[in-house]
Design goal:
heterodimer; A: about 0% strand; flat; B: 6-stranded mixed β-sheet; ArtM/GltK/GlnP/TcyL/YhdX-like (chain A); AA_ABC_transptr_permease_3TM (chain A); MetI-like_sf (chain A)
Chain lengths: ~220, ~240
């Protein structure tokens, strides 16, 4: 159909970039989700007023563009703290907090959506706060929060393209490197897009599968 | 024995209970009637410590419910409560709804808990719905499941808070039958209800609540036949 200079080695190079994208995303979403659950529960338990400092802290990560967060965090670690921290670590750290900030809101919304009367019924059976959280609130809130969480995870995966500013060569950066060399931008971006799709699709389908499994109607 | 002594309770500026005194003996069935806002439902949630009280005390088998040292989770294992809204756990099957608390709170093994749950569910007529999810049950069935769920903890006391009020009229009967059955078996019960015929047939005593005060209490024949308090008379005339 058309000629291309793209070699098998270049495809491997792109796949390695995709691997980096998956790795950064997986680490950030995992840590970010755990922190998000913690922050979300704290916010619900403390109430709006007492959790104001935490809310403010998380709002910073939600409102400052990720690119700026990455550059500033990298500069802060290197120039101010004089720490030898790899770009990869900085990328995972910033993306984790960024994920946590959004996830905390999702978790809070999920917990708030569990009817107070249902929780009251659990407590009236003699369940402790922890048992209520574990056996009633957690499963119900998870079902409510899942679509938003899948959206967040996919968003973080795409946003992870920005970690190139801290010298992490992920999928998009790898593509740009090849574009510079091969001068076939449209074709390479098409392949790059296909890689992103291949990464996202299973996660989106997995979410759909869980939703279906959990609905009893 | 449940002893309620001079209990006061308010929600903000609103005084809901203004000095309630009531003693319910083991095996007794007491129904509480009265208009909405009379404080009758609040009293039930105070008895199992879901709501704090302002003053007075409530003793269940000698344990003061609102004392700082009282282990409420432990106390509640002995006091079943069923609400107007049946509050099924929607992610669990009927059987799991009933086995959850016995397993996690009492620490009973799975097989034994399932045997208890099955027995209770059969008792309320849901023996064929064990693996069904609550969303597939009618309101009356969900309410009976909630009763079985409370009974599975083998409580000595059962509190019923307008358990038929949210049901379609044709489903009320099946739930009242379940309550009657429990009463006949000797369960100690306090039932807040708007079902006057039920109150008359099942109760040992009927209490009439009016604006946070227990205006009158007595045998059903007396309350329904010869009410002493003018408010009781007016209330009964209005619901007839």
């Amino acid at each position: 159909m058309f000629d291309t200079a793209l070699s098998a080695a270049d495809l491997v190079f792109l796949a390695k970039g995709a691997g980096m994208t998956i790795l950064v995303t997986a680490i950030s979403v995992a840590i970010g989700t755990l922190l998000g659950i913690l922050f979300g529960v704290i916010r619900v338990q403390l109430g709006a007023t007492l959790s104001l400092p935490l809310t403010f802290f998380l709002d910073i990560f939600r409102s400052v563009p990720l690119l700026i967060q990455l550059v500033l965090a990298n500069a802060f670690m290197g120039m101010v703290l004089r720490l030898q921290i790899s770009g990869f670590t900085v990328a995972c750290g910033v993306l984790s907090l960024y994920t946590a900030a959004y996830c905390a809101e999702i978790v809070r919304g999920g917990i708030d959506a569990v009817p107070a009367t249902t929780r009251r019924a659990a407590r009236s059976l003699g369940m402790s706060w922890m048992q209520d959280m574990r056996y009633i609130v957690a499963p119900l809130a998870t079902r409510i929060a899942l679509p938003s969480w899948i959206g967040l995870a996919l968003g973080v995966m795409k946003d992870s393209a920005l970690v190139y500013v801290v010298q992490v060569t992920e999928l998009l950066k790898s593509t740009q490197i090849l574009i510079t060399r091969l001068q076939e931008p449209l074709f390479l971006l098409l392949i790059c897009g296909a890689f992103y799709f291949l990464i996202s699709f299973p996660l989106a389908r997995f979410g759909g599968y869980l939703e279906k499994r959990w609905s009893h109607d | 024995m449940i002893e309620i002594q001079n209990v006061h309770k308010s929600f903000g500026p609103l005084k809901v209970l203004k000095g309630i005194d009531l003693t319910v003996e083991k095996g007794e069935v007491v129904t509480v009637i009265g208009g909405s806002g009379s404080g009758k439902s609040t009293l039930l949630t105070c008895i199992n410590g879901l709501e704090p009280i302002d003053s007075g005390r409530i003793l269940v088998d000698g344990t003061e419910v609102h004392a700082r040292t009282t282990d409420l989770n432990r106390l509640r294992q002995n006091i079943g409560i069923v609400f107007q809204q049946w509050n099924a756990f929607p992610h669990l099957t009927v059987l799991e709804n009933v086995t959850l608390a016995p397993r996690k709170v009492l620490g009973i093994g799975k097989a034994e808990a399932e045997a208890i749950a099955e027995k209770q569910l059969r008792h309320v007529g849901l023996g064929d719905k064990l693996s069904t999810f609550p969303s597939r049950l009618s309101g009356g069935q969900q309410q009976r499941m909630a009763i079985a769920r409370a009974l599975a903890m083998s409580p000595d006391y059962m509190l019923f808070d307008e358990v038929t009020s949210a049901l379609d009229p044709q489903l009320v009967g099946e739930v009242l039958e379940t309550l009657k059955m429990l009463a006949e078996e000797g369960m100690t019960m306090i039932c807040v209800t708007h079902e006057m015929a039920f109150a008359r047939d099942v109760s040992d005593r009927v209490a009439y609540f009016h604006k946070g005060i227990m205006a009158e209490i007595g045998a059903p024949e007396q309350i329904f036949g010869d009410p002493q308090h003018p408010e009781t008379w007016a209330f009964l005339a209005s619901v007839r």
